[in-house]
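Protein Record: Sequence and Backbone Structure Tokens
======================================================
Tokens: labelled as protein backbone structure tokens, with as many entries as the chain has residues.
Question of interest: how does this chain fold, as expressed in backbone structure tokens?

___
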Amino acid sequence: MDKITAAMADMLEDELLALTDKYLADGKDPKAILDAYQAGMTEVGKRYEAGEYFVSELILAGEMMTAGSDKIKPFLKGDSSSGPAKARVLIATVEGDIHDIGKNIAGTIMELAGYEVKNLGEDVKTSVIIEEVKNFKPKLIGLSGLLTLAYDPMKAVVDQLKEAGLRDSVKVLLGGSQIDEHILKYVGADVFANDAMTNVTYLNSLV
């Protein structure tokens, strides 16, 4: 699996997808392959923070993750331990922000972990999120944003959930590399995540 991780980290898309096809055909554990992808994504993040990679590499890594997960998903669904979705999750990049790479990767990983994920996209109005909570009835809402101007829309979602009498029925997770305890408290959410796997760990603790 180290070859999968290295190919992801080094942006070797053709090699990565070829290895994925081979390992799946050979009957390798699809969950182990997914873990190797995530390890590669973690390394991509480290290289980005170190200034070795730039936004273009993050975009490519996201595309590689999506392409790989599309290959892995059918094998996971065929696992004898799989069954109905563990819970519903609603994710969105809040109004005023258009960053969605991290959100999309997080959504993919949550799907692969057995959750039903509805992705509303980016620059989503607060009223749309509230309406979707009423209709979709998620156990968790994931609000994503990389810009500082995303904090107020995040807070607006939580405030309107309270006004609609929905706050006690759903947990709110904030996603973004700059989110910290201070922002969490300001928004009034339940938890924050700076990486995709934290989402799954938290979800598993809920269900």
